[in-house]
């Protein structure tokens, strides 16, 4: 195993004084903005276009990317590049066959053909370049997978077994069947009740991490090709975590109102009139907040 891909070493949370914005800005400054790397992207095959470009022998992932969409005329002043990264990251999540699981809790899929073709390393380079050049973050990786990938001990106390994609594996994890023996739990038939949670956690790690360690290692190596991103992440993983894993969505006016249930008084009554005034004031407050916060 690659020396840079170290196993879980600690559960102690450490953090630098820099926030993620500062860390990301420092990382982005490593990109060579004086030279540019041109690629042509096909709208219907964005991820394929990205992988084809990344496979070019002299493609430099540390140069500023200049994107042209096939059939379109215009200069790339940042918009096409950001749109390319947005579409490519979406395809990576949904259509690449490299990840599996719930939309915001994906784990690496064991894909031997893709591993041999170096697709996980290409996807790591793509994610690194997106972060380095104002593209979107990954945002869909399971948090425990990210923590193990960056050398931290995951918190599996409340791990949802439904996140494990294979139905048969979920059932066996819940029923403690023969599969445990095949996965290395040699004393599975002699487990004490108190030892079962520990064994289940070990099996969860096997399912979401250890069985795809080669894929994860290749992906991490690809990110490290982009100005040492993996190395930077391991220095302060908790700061980088929210860029790779889903965080709570901001509460908007629309979402707030969706959670509200209107209970009006009888129309024409004095109480109904006061309620309508209060509702108008509430909407005025939302508009004021939107202006203040630039929403």
The Rg value, from CA coordinates, equals 24 Å
Number of strands: 4
Strand order of the largest sheet: 1-2
How widely separated are the two ends?
47 Å
SSE ordering: HEHEHEEHHHHHHHHHHH
Kindly report the average pLDDT value: 78
Q: What kind of sheet is the major sheet?
A: 2 strands, parallel
Low-confidence stretches: 1-15
Number of helices: 14
Residue share in helix: 40-55%
| Overall geometric form | globular
Strand percentage lies at 5-15%
Helix and strand content put the structural class at: mainly alpha
Give an account of the 3D structure.
This protein is 49% helix and 7% strand. By secondary structure, the chain is mainly alpha-helical. A two-stranded parallel ribbon has the order 1-2. Strands 3-4 form a two-stranded antiparallel sheet. The relative contact order is 0.14. It has helices spanning 20-28, 46-54, 79-94, 112-116, 119-132, 143-149, 167-175, 179-182, 196-208, 213-225, 229-235, 237-244, 253-259, 270-293; strands at residues 32-41, 63-69, 99-100, 107-108. The model is unreliable at 1-15 (pLDDT under 50). Strand 1, helix 2 and strand 2 (63-69) form a beta-alpha-beta unit. Helix 3 runs antiparallel to helix 5 (119-132).
